[in-house]
Write a structure and sequence with these properties.
This protein has helices at residues 3-18, 23-39, 49-80, 100-112, 138-157; strands at residues 89-94, 116-121, 127-132. The chain is mainly alpha-helical. It has 2 domains: 3-47, no CATH class; 50-157, no CATH class. α1 (3-18) packs across α2 and α4 (100-112) crosses α5.
Length: 159
């Protein structure tokens, strides 16, 4: 069984012991199971890539939440103030991610961020077409998307 499966099993056991299968109980069980597996690493043959991947997923979620808050505030400010700073444009972002899952995750994270919308992926899956609300400098926006969302997703799946 994989370490992730064992961690899920430990979360379910924790919830059973607490007699609550609510999300907070399962999350607490998952965190406690993760800590127990971290301590027991030598029993599984040394460091596992599972622990690095979990850390990268947490970092991706944190990065997305930060981008979500910042872009929501920026779009709200532009909508609520009399002067509009938006400069919409459609840009082409070259993709370094290759698998369908990675492309799906990048496009969804971009679309879920206010002010940007993934429109299409070219048939060769090398370019993502994005509508951006604030595209004053398209090259800087492309760098921001590649160094931000795409890099974080690539790191999660790089193992």
């Amino acid at each position: 069984m994989s370490l992730f499966g064992i961690n899920i099993l430990l979360a379910i056991v924790w919830s059973s012991l607490m007699a609550s299968f609510a999300l907070p109980s399962l999350a607490t069980g998952f965190v406690l199971g993760y800590a127990a597996l971290w301590v027991a690493q030598p029993l599984f043959g040394g460091p596992s890539l599972y622990f690095l991947r979990v850390w990268r997923v947490i970092r991706l979620v944190g990065f997305f939440l930060y981008e979500l808050i910042v872009s929501s505030l920026r779009v709200s400010w532009d909508v609520l103030t009399p002067s509009h700073k938006s400069n919409p444009a459609i840009i082409e972002v070259p993709l370094d991610v290759e698998s369908d899952l990675e492309i799906l995750l990048v496009t969804n994270l971009i679309s879920l961020t206010p002010g940007t919308l993934s429109l299409d992926v070219t048939p060769d899956r090398k370019t993502l077409i994005v509508h951006a609300m604030f595209a004053d400098d398209p090259e800087a926006l492309i760098r921001e998307l590649k160094d931000g969302m795409e890099r974080q997703v690539r790191e999660v799946f790089a193992l």
